[in-house]
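Onboarding guide, step 5: your first structure request.
Type a short instruction followed by the sequence, for example:

Predict the 3D structure of this protein.
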Amino acid sequence: MKLSCQEGMVPGKTLEERLETLARYGYEGVEFGGGGLAGRKKEVLKATKGSGVQVSTICSGYRGVPLSVRKEERDLAIEDIKRLLELSAELSAVGLIFVPIFGPPQVPDLSPYKTPLELERELLLTLLDELSRHAEQAGSVLLLEPLNRYETHFIRTLAQAVEYAKTVGSPGLKIMADFFHMAIEERDIAASIREAGDWIYHVHLADSTRLLPGYGHTDFKAGFDALKSFGYDKYMAMECGIPGDPTEELPRSAEYLRPFI
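The system replies with structure tokens like these:
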């Protein structure tokens, strides 16, 4: 298992400085936001060449809403997601983190024919089939992320995400596990991770307070043991608040997690 960190959390005037800082702190990966990343491709490739810190993942950054009631919004999202999947492969990242929708449903209630959730499920399966095939062709992976109940009405547990991945049945579609969301939605984080198994292809790290690990009550040892039980060897990226000076807090959090890795 390898530690990563979102670029925006890292101090430094240039990307090279930020990568050098991460390497010094004990991190092996950096996660980029997808917005505007295509225009930075040369910069990222130059900075990561020969570096001990590589691109772990791309986090969202597409326009539109995949489950919007408006076709133009869906089409915009799909177009951007396909381009970001291609960029992910070009940057040798694990894949692109994908959230189908934030907030409440946008599709209508057509019951007794179909409820919004039923319509969303059918629409999402259609989109995932298309996007996962594109991910396969590009040499990347679409990473379906469950959120918590305060951020979405839709996919909120690892088991729900795995259900979609199994139904689609493509190597281009996996799931990611976020410790903050799991602290809200999973009854037993470690058990849920074990049940999801190797469908998990990426991990986000944040304590129960949504601050750096070590500033809450999440049992990271149990969670990491569950990841190790099926041989998880990919990245775990910090996506959280920093309660102080990042030059002190980022290395401290890495040291806090190191015994569990």
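Each response can be followed by summary notes, for example: Strands lie at 2-6, 29-33, 54-59, 96-98, 142-144, 173-178, 200-205, 235-238.
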